[in-house]
Amino acid sequence: MGIQKLNVRSRASSRNADGSPRYGVIHVNIRHTRRFTVVGNHLAQHDEMSLMGIGLGTHIQSLPAGTPVGIKDLAARFPESEYRIARALRELEEHGYLERTRDRLPGGQVVTRTVFYNRPGYAVPEEEAGPDAGRGAEPVVAEAEVEALPVSVAVATPLRPLPRPAGPASAVRRDAAERVLVGLRGVDPRLLLGERDVERLTPAVETWLERGASPDAVTAALTLHLPPRTRNPAALIAYRLTSQIPPERVAASSRAPMLLVLPMQTCERCDLAYRGAEPGCCKGCS
Predict the structure, then answer these.
(1) Which of 86, 103, 104, 83 has the alpha carbon at shortest distance from 94?
(2) Which run of H or of E encompasses 99?
(3) Contacts with 246 (C-beta within 8 Å, 6 or more apart), sequence order
């Protein structure tokens, strides 16, 4: 009786003889030595953002600091409408990549300051956050992991040192400032500050209170729209206390005198218009 041989078909390989895949994307990678941007897969492969948001985030990350990234600026550069660009910017804000604040310049002009985080939730290094922003804070992540650098700023104004009160010391104001900083953990447990950080940041909060901000307003400014992951709360609080500080209050004696503008009246005799406190006749008719 002959032996029956069974021929089993071998499973087809998913790769060609040279190792390249038979289907799907094939990468041809050339090493960049100039004019390139490193983009994390957390942005390039984000599973909650639209393709428009991912693409706009990648574009903003590639821009040099100081490049305008307002809605109209981007709409002039790309064929997408202002509505789609605004929606993509909101996506980036919701996922912690973008932070937009309104700043008042010394001349009184209000501008929008845009900060882009190429890795949301990671601490800003001391050398990037200002002279005093990182002093006293213990390093939380390794140097190779620090990725949350402000890549694109709409108004290229360097961060100032932590603000300090201009007036005389006030024990009541200092106590209120300390309570604001210690109470941040009650709003968000991630904002747990150490004793040294509270001592270092207290004068900055005092300055806010000196300029007329209430403790609740300071708390709201420091806790609104936090990034998804906050690895160094002290650096984040220091950055916001410096970049979003309200303007100084103007003394009543230095304010420009208000001019009294009388309302327009119609002359009862000649029907000509004139300015006067009460209805009646113009100077010519009276």
Answers:
(1) 86
(2) strand 98-104
(3) 208, 211, 212, 213
Element (H, E) at 93: helix 82-94
pLDDT in 10s for each residue of the chain, 286 residues: 555 555 555 555 667 777 677 778 887 878 888 888 888 888 999 988 999 999 999 999 998 888 888 888 898 888 899 889 999 999 998 888 988 887 777 777 777 788 888 888 765 554 444 443 333 323 222 222 233 334 333 333 444 688 899 888 899 999 999 999 999 999 999 899 999 999 999 999 999 999 999 999 999 999 988 877 777 888 889 888 988 889 887 655 555 565 667 777 777 777 777 777 778 777 777 7
Query: What are the DSSP calls for 161-202, one per residue?
Result: PPP--SS---HHHHHHHHHHHHHHHHH-GGG---HHHHHHHH
Tokens 């706009």 map to which residue?
A: 56
* Angle, in degrees to the nearest 10, between helices 215-223 and 195-210: 120
164 contacts 79 by C-beta, under 8 angstroms = no
3-state secondary structure of 87: helix
DSSP state of 284: T
Name the token pair of 206: 């005092």
Q: Quote the CA–CA distance of 286 and 125 in Å, as a whole number.
A: 75
- Which H or E run includes 55? helix 51-61
* Residues in a beta bridge with 145: none
The values of phi and psi at residue 85, to 5°, are -65, -40
Q: CA 202, 207, 211, 213: dihedral to nearest 10 degrees? A: -20
What is the value of pTM for the model shown?
Answer: 0.41
